[in-house]
């Protein structure tokens, strides 16, 4: 499998796993959003909890220039570590929610 | 064009127009996320404005059971009205961010 296809599959697996363990009800759904053309991937919650509106991404990844950008992670899972364990080199991972300045002090890519 | 294809195209057009008028910079991008398999559609901003993190959906649509769900609208545009003007019957539009109770008092669908 070529690198990009592998990265896409890894990301889809992570999001799908989280969607499955998510507490969903008739009123709140976990939406898997996979755009393989623009390479944007998101897990999003949508619905109502009683009279409270629920809407918001839980995790969001992009793939750009062959690198995985972790743009948002609302879970306790250390996704970058998880990706490395699954064979992604740290140089192919960008922690988008860390400032570019901060990124230089990590083992991951800056851009 | 069949109804679903037409609805998909309308939604993509609305999001694409908004992405184009969006103020983006090298640091902040407007992401179009089109998942035509699960029928989730989103415009999302991602990046950094100086040392401030920018991340969040601006508009989000779903198509479910032949109806367009407006799940989130962070713009001033009255999207439901706009959809009706483009030929979508109000009975095929659900304002997801209105509570199910409130929806019965509008011209749009409840579910």
What would you say this structure looks like, in words?
Chain A has about 110 residues and is of the alpha+beta class. Chain A is about 25% helix and about 35% strand. Chain A has helices at about 5-20, 80-85, 100-105; strands spanning about 30-35, 40-50, 50-65, 65-75, 95. A five-stranded mixed beta sheet of chain A has the order 1-2-3-4-5, with helices on one face. The longest helix of chain A has 19 residues, at about 5-20. The model of chain A has no long low-confidence stretch (mean pLDDT about 95). At the A-B interface, strand 1, strand 2 and strand 3 of A face strand 1, strand 2 and strand 3 of B.
Care to give the gist of this entry?
The structure is a homodimer of 111-residue chains. Helices cover 27% and strands 37% of the residues of chain A. Chain A has helices spanning 3-21, 79-85, 100-103, and strands at 28-35, 40-49, 52-64, 67-73, 93-95.
Topology:
The structure is a homodimer of 111-residue chains.
Chain A lengths: L2 H19 L6 E8 L4 E10 L2 E13 L2 E7 L5 H7 L7 E3 L4 H4 L8
Parallel strand pairs in A: 4-5
Antiparallel strand pairs in A: 1-2, 2-3, 3-4
Key terms:
homodimer, 111 residues, five-stranded mixed beta sheet, alpha+beta, 37% strand, 5 strands
């Amino acid at each position: 499998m070529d690198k990009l296809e592998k990265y896409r599959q890894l990301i889809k697996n992570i999001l799908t796993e989280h969607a499955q363990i998510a507490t969903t009800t008739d009123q709140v759904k976990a939406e898997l959003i996979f755009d393989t053309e623009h390479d944007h991937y998101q897990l999003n919650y949508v619905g109502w909890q009683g009279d409270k509106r629920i809407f918001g991404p839980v995790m969001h990844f992009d793939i750009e220039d062959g690198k995985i950008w972790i743009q948002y992670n609302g879970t306790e899972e250390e996704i970058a570590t998880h990706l490395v364990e699954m064979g992604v080199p740290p140089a192919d991972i960008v922690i988008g929610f860390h400032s570019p300045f901060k990124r230089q002090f990590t083992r991951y890519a800056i851009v």
